[in-house]
Amino acid sequence: MSRAHMKKRLAFGFPIVLVASAVLIGVMSQAAPQGKPAETEDARHQGVLKGKNLILITLDTTRADHITCYGGPQGLTPNIDALAADGTLFLKAYSQTNVTNPSHTAILTGLRAIDSRIFNNQTTFTWVSPDADTLGLAFQRAGYRTAGFPATPHLSNEPECLGMTGFDHYPNVPKGGGFDARQIVDNTIEWIKSESDKPFFAWVHFFDPHMKYWPPEEYRNQFYPKDKDPTSGDGPPLEQNDDFKRSPEIVTDQFGKVRDLTYPPALYQGEVRYTDEEVGRLIKFLKGAGLYENTGIVLVADHGESLGDHNVYYDHYGLFEASMHIPCLMRFPGLPGGNKVTDFVTHVDLAPTISHLYGLTFRQRLASMHGVNLTPTLFRETNSKLAVRPATVHEDAYNRQVMVRKGPWKLIQMIEGPKYEWADVLLFNVEEDPQEKTNLAESKPEVVADLSQYIKNWLKVGKVSLRNPKPDDPKDRAKQEEAIKNLVAIGYAEAGEGADEENAAAKPPPFAVNEYKDFLFKLDLKLTSDQKKRIEKVIDDAKTNLRKANAAKDAAEAKKIRTQMRLDVADVLTDEQNLKVNEAITLELLKRKDGE
Questions:
Q1: 41 and 12 belong to one structural domain
Q2: Looking at the 3D structure of the chain, how many domains does it have?
Q3: Same domain, yes or no, for 5 and 61?
Q4: How far apart are the first and last CA of the chain?
Q5: CATH code assigned at 211
Q6: pLDDT digits over 20-64, tens only?
Q7: 269 and 130, same structural domain?
Q8: Helix (H/G/I), strand (E/B), else coil: 213
């Protein structure tokens, strides 16, 4: 991380201002097949794939238990299975969130949602610090040509969409629509063929398993008889189910009349099968073009999907395994194949691993990322950093939950009332109860107490609302409203979302300029006389400029002045002093909230 970037984050309290929706994985090591210990883990194998190509495949809305090599239906995903057999399969991979944009941001940056400030599908990458780095930017600096192939509008490069940085080629996606798997693979192959003198990095996104489930006809008929009517039968239609009524409108419109509950999962299987077929076509092209042995492939889902699990119908709400346990595999030329790893891993591990293997330089240094470099694991060597580590994962704030995964145990803590009738504390032994049917919270209070320690600090600021960060600039608000309209069109949001004040994001602590100096000088920062003079000048200048902005009734300019003041003060302080200020601001914010 650059010093400027660190200063900026410290000035606004990003590292310490915690959020209310998260998953915390306390990892217990269940090691992969062990060879000789890594001699120096941080340096070993660094840059071993320098100059090789990389394809990052992200599968939207894909459950781990619908991939055959994860125990899914036989023959459902033969191409993904073959790729896994040629590389390393991570059996206990968990999503950073159950929402597309923050999950993809974590994959492409190595940053958690509390670091990137991408909390939902209405947030754009322009809201992230301009110093934030991405895999695309890092590959560009290394001389690669880069391309992103998103399949859904809210991941594309339109101003109101995510707009991930670092891609030479980043096609927009039609609003209210998208590209299916066949189009995505066609576009990717065409781009790869277009130039051959430079190595490439391509992010390839498949949206097909996402609602609305409607694969090509041959895949629909493969898992549900063509001549069978899903609206007939003795059972009541889904539209009479109160839990089903909570599903997005695109789901209730498609399946409201359905009586046969095997029908929607059959269509979902068809989508997964179709996606696998197109993944296979891409790999077949690489082999035929002589590129496979010179190309690394990482395949990971952004989150899973609930198919009626826990009364969540055809959506990815909540922190249950259906939505959070995901497929993740890596296949790199020259690295061992046939690996099956049982350590917990998550999205934020991918960027540090890829950066290490390809010898990339990240502006946010690997040490500042919360993920683990998995390179030793890929080489079947001891990875001491996987032995015990806390890893944070966020969930979309409409439910505001915290989850801890440790050993066989999984704790889900509700911060505010859930949309569904779930208990406030849920404890499952996932190894014995993979469907999470039996809540052991009352019978295992000692386990709850142990796991609760991992989320203690998160709960201190559990009142912070993250759902729809609300821009102050009218242009930004208009962009957000446009984004919500697009999301409604594909079933990701309901009309009217983002309008209420509760949906405002956590913002920098509300200290007026007049009180900021007194607040700083009361802290035990051991300021030098020169630092005090510089801070006083920064704040005095801000006061003068604020008076002018207020006289002109220019709220946007006033906000810029307050923002710049905090940045300038942070630049005067050392990193250690900034950390102390950041912590003090967090505590003061808590006091003010408690007094509300």
A1: no
A2: 2
A3: no
A4: 36
A5: 3.40.720.10
A6: 334 554 333 333 334 444 445 667 899 999 999 999 999 999 999
A7: yes
A8: coil
The model's pTM: 0.74
- What distance in Å separates the CA atoms of residue 556 and residue 558, rounded to the nearest whole number? 5
- Dig out the tokens for 151 from the structure: 């399949």
Report the distance separating Cα 577 and Cα 596, nearest Å.
29
Which of 393, 426, 459 is the endpoint of a domain?
A: 393
Tens of pLDDT, residue by residue over 524-543, are: 899 999 999 999 999 999 88
- Three-class DSSP labels, 60-100: CCCCHHHCHHHCCCCCCCHHHHHHHHCCEEEEEEECCCCCH
Helices within 211-343 (DSSP H only): 217-223, 249-255, 263-288, 321-324
Range(s) of the domain holding residue 583: 1-16+508-596
Q: Are residues 71 and 7 in the same domain?
A: no
- Spell out the residues 6+ positions from residue 411 whose beta carbon is closer than 8 angstroms to its own: 403, 404, 425, 426, 427, 441, 447, 448, 451, 452, 455
The interaxial angle of helices 513-522 and 529-551, nearest 10 deg, is: 160
Compute CA 396 distance to the chain's CA centroid, rounded to the nearest angstrom: 10
In a 13 Å sphere around the CA of 375, the CA atoms on its Cβ side amount to 23
Query: Per the structure block, which two tokens stand in for 52?
Result: 């090789």
Task: Classify 185 as helix, strand or coil.
Answer: helix
132 and 9 co-located in one domain: no
Sign, CA dihedral 220-223-228-233, equals: negative
Amino acid at 519: F
Question: Is the Cα dihedral 252, 257, 262, 263 positive or negative?
Answer: negative
Same domain, 144 and 187: yes
Burial class (CB in 10 A: 0-12, 13-18, 19+), 544: exposed
**Secondary structure of 152-183 in the HEC alphabet?**
CHHHCCCCCCCCCCCCCECCCCCCCCCCCHHH
Secondary structure (DSSP) of 104-159: HHHHHH---HHHH---STT--GGGS-TT---HHHHHHHTT-EEEEE-SSGGGSSST
Task: Count Cβ atoms below 10 Å from residue 571 Cβ, excluding itself.
Answer: 15
Examine the domain organization and report whether 314 and 375 are in the same domain: yes
- Residue 587, SS3 per DSSP: helix
Q: How confident is the model at residue 128 (pLDDT cuts 50, 70, 90)?
A: low
414: in domain: no
